[in-house]
Amino acid sequence: MLKDLLEARLAPALHAAGAPEGSAVALTVSTKPEFGDYQMNGAMGAAKRLKRPPRELAEAVLAHAQLDDLVSEASIAGPGFINLRLRESVLEAQLDTFTARVLNPKAPSREAGRVLIDYSSPNLAKEMHVGHLRSTIIGDSLARCFAHAGWEVLRQNHVGDWGTQFGMLLAYLNTLETGDGTPAADAELADLERFYRKAKARFDEDPAFAALSRETVVKLQQGDPACRTAWQRFIDVSLSHCEALYGRLQVTLTREHVHAESAYNEALAGVITALRDRGLLTESEGAQCVFLDEFTGKDDAPLPLIVQKSDGGYLYATTDLAAVRYRCDDLEADRALYLVDKRQGLHFKQVFAVAKAAGFITRPCSFEHMPFGTMLGEDGRPFRTRAGDVVKLADLLDEAERRAEMLVSEKNPDLDAAACAEIAKAIAIGAVKYADLSKHRNNDYVFSWDAMLSFDGNTAPYLQYAYSRIQSLFARAQVAPEALSAGLSLGAPQERSLALTLLRTEDVLAQVRDQGLPHLLCTHLYEVATAFTAFYEHCPVLNAPEESIRNQRLALAHCCGETLRQGLELLGIPVVQRM
Ligand code: ARG
Question: Ligand 1: does its nearest atom lie under 6 Å from the Cβ of 158?
C-alpha cells in the first residue's frame, strides 16, 4: 500500500527527530493535488507534546527521513504539515503488481481473521420489506469485502422465528388445515403478508382463537411434535420467500447461513442461570432483569435489561446474550458485526455490556453494532406506499427493473428484448444497492428513483457505464488486455492522477473493513471513474502518437476497468459489457 510505504520511512524519522515513542505519523491523502499526493500531519501533534515549534520538528523529520527513492518532492507547509509527492517510478512499479496484490481475491485464512456478520435477519412472520433492505445490502457488501481480503467470513442470518406471534400464525394455519385441507393452506401461505393480517384479524375478534394462539406458543416452545411440524412448514415457506429476494438481489446469503432465534432456545435457561450465578439478576415487577450502573433512563432512573418475563418467557435480549456466547465460544469469531437499524443501539449496548459483565466474552472478540439510518421517501418521511403501507421488497425490485428497462431501451432503441432485459436487471440491482451503499450508513437517506437511475454523478449507472466504455474501447482496439506487455509510463498529468487514484484502492478497502463503511468504496470508485474520464478526454488512446503509448494507455484503461469491475463486485453490483 502507498501509505504503508511512506509510513515505514516516516515513523522512524519522527522518532529520530525526538518525538515520543508511539507518536502517530498521521498520514492522509492531500486535500489538494497541488500540495502533493500525501500529507503527514503527525509532526504537529508530536511538537505540541514536546513543546517544540512544529515547523522545526517537521524539518528534523525530513532531515532524518530517507525518502529519496520514493518521493520527488517533500516540503513543509503551514503550521507544520509535510507534503509529499511520490515518484512516477514508484507508481509505475506499484501498478505492475496491482492486479495480483489488490484485485485478485486472497484465499481465506485464519491468519487474516475470522469475522462474523449478522445481517438481513428479517422476522419470518411477515414478508421482507424495505426495512430489511439496508441490513441485507450493507451486510452483504461487507461480507464480500472481508472475504476478498482473505478473512474467514461467517454469515449469520439471525431470523426472527420464535416470538409470540408464531402461536397466532400456527393456530391459524391449523384451522385452515383441519377445515379445507392442505391445498387451501398452501395457497394462503403464498402471500405471507395477507396471511398475517387474516390471522391477526381473527386473533383480535375471536377470544377462543386468541386463547388457542397462546396455548400454541407454549406448546411450540415446549417442543410439541405436531406444532413443530406445522411451524417448520411455515418457516420453510417464509424462508423461500426471502431466498427468492436474495436471488434477485444477488445477495450471497443461503439457507446454510440461517441461524435463527429458535436455534438458541435450549441455551436460554443457561443464560439465566449464568447471570444469577454472577449475582447480576434482580427481580423487578416479577421479571428478571439486569441493572448496570452505566445505563440510566429518564430522571437517571436505572434502566434494566429484561431477560425473563414474569410468566417465564424469554425475550429478544436473552436470545442475543445466548448468541454472544455461541459466537464467541463456538464460532470463535475475532470480530462480530451486527448490521441492525440504529434504533436498536441501546439494545446492543446493553447486551454487549451485560455479556461482558457476565464473563460471556471469553476470548478476544470484538462485538460491534454497525447501525444504519432509515430509508425515507421523497417527502422525508419513512418510505411507504401511497396507501401508507410498508413497501414489499419484491414490489420495489419490480419497479426498479421496469424503470431501468425503459431507460435502456430509450438509450439503445436497436437492442433486442433479451439483451435489454438483461442490462436492465443489472442496472436495477445496481441502482437500488448503490443508492443505499453510497451514503454513510449512520444517516437516514432519501430513496429517489430519478437520482439513483441517473447516468451522471455518484450513481451505479455512471460507474457501470464507465466500465462498459472501457470494454468497448478494447473491442475497437481489437486487442486482448492479456496481450499488452506490462510496463506503464505515466507521462501526462491525467495518467499520473488516474494511476495514483487506482493505487489508493488497497488503503480504501482496509478502511472499509476497519470501520464497516462501504460508502468509502463507493466514493473511491466514483473518483476512479472521474479520473478515467479526465484521462480519456486528454489522452488519446486509439489515436495515440505512438504504438507504445497506445499500448500503455490501453494497459492503464484495463487496470481501471478491472478496478471498477472488482469494486462493484464487492458492492454486490454486476457490470455489463455494453449499455
Ligand atoms: N429480527 C430483528 C429485526 O427485524 C433483527 C435481528 C438482528 N440481529 C440480532 N442478533 N438481534 O428487528
Answer: yes
